Amino acid sequence: MTVRPDEAADIALAREILADARVVLVLTGAGISAESGVPTFRGPEGLWRSFRPEDLATPEAFERDPRLVWEWYHWRRQRVAPCVPNAAHGALARWQALPHSDVRIATQNVDGLHSLALEAAGASVDAGTLLEVHGALYRSRCTACSNRSESRDAPDATGAGLPECPVCGGLLRPDVVWFGEALDPAVIGRAFEWAAVADTCLVVGTSALVHPAASLPAVTRERGGHVVEVNPERTPLTSWATASVRGRAAEIVPAIVPRDG
Ligand code: BJW
Ligand code: ZN
């Protein structure tokens, strides 16, 4: 990679902060999966350039036209299915797997790539290490009985029927958080607890525009911790982060996270 002199200083500062960090919250967004081939939401190539969020990612849109929403999620599932974790997911997972490391990930992504990377690194994958605060692309939830089911298969939304609950026959919906919906209080509550006890929050590949997730780094900062950002573009966090590295996740993250205890 070609590194500008000021970028080299930013990378050095970020590396130093992460080397000294004891309790870390990593907040990730769509940008960390961009180099795995998963589309982001905003920006020139983002999903919201071709699709209107209010037509597809709100409870009102699903009520109005569940088939259209399911078709979009079916397409998204097909698009993400061949994608694999990249060097950024891998470096974070290996950091988590180090003995004595205390690194927890809260991701806004629904693509499941952090889980795959953690499994590959031999780190544990549970609610103590990874929170998927906006849900999971391959999970469905019953609108009648709330039963959750996981499937990598395409939902039967393009054929005659809409996907049905295996327990009660009710209409299934993607188990993701749409605009205007509350995040699971247990999940986002835990993420805020992690932000409050962390001495460092590493933020990777998020526009930091969607709340409440975008408020997590400020909690660490307000408690006197560091915020380190990795993003090719400036975000609302950039002006007050302790270190902000302009660059792509798969190049920068492996260069700044510790490799040994
Ligand atoms: C790279 C890169 C590379 C590119 N390497 N980086 C406070 C203020 C204002 C508004 C609100 C507020 N609190 C709540 C709101 C309303 C709303 C909101 O935040 N709106 C704003 C947009 C204005 N929030 C909500 O509605 C939330 N719910 C809520 O607050 O409920 C309250 C409630 C309580 C009680 C009862 C009822 C309600 C819910 C938000 C749900 C968001 N859902 C989505 C869809 C998920 C499912 C799906 O995937 O289909 O989540 S929208 C979408 O945005 C998705 C993402 O997780 C989320 C964040 O996007 P992200 O990850 O940051 O991606 P991008 O595309 O924005 O950015 C990518 C970044 O990567 C860029 O910066 C690039 O530069 C960078 N990048 N290549 C590193 N190689
Ligand atoms: Zn059901």
Brief write-up:
The protein is α/β, with parallel strands linked by helices and 261 residues long.
Describe the protein.
It is a single chain. The protein has helices at 5-20, 47-50, 53-56, 59-64, 66-80, 87-97, 113-121, 185-197, 216-222, 249-256; strands at 24-28, 103-107, 130-132, 135-142, 148-150, 172-176, 200-204, 226-230, 243-245. It has 261 residues and is an alpha/beta fold. It has a six-stranded parallel sheet, with helices on both faces. A three-stranded antiparallel sheet has the order 5-4-6, with helices on one face. Helix 6 (87-97) packs parallel to helix 10 (249-256) and helix 8 (185-197) packs parallel to helix 9. The mean pLDDT is 94. It binds ligand BJW and zinc ion. Zinc ion binds at residues 142, 144-145, 147, 165, 167-168, 170.
Task: Supply database-style keywords.
single chain; 261 residues; alpha/beta; six-stranded parallel sheet; three-stranded antiparallel sheet; 10 helices; 36% helix; 16% strand; globular; binds ligand BJW; binds zinc ion
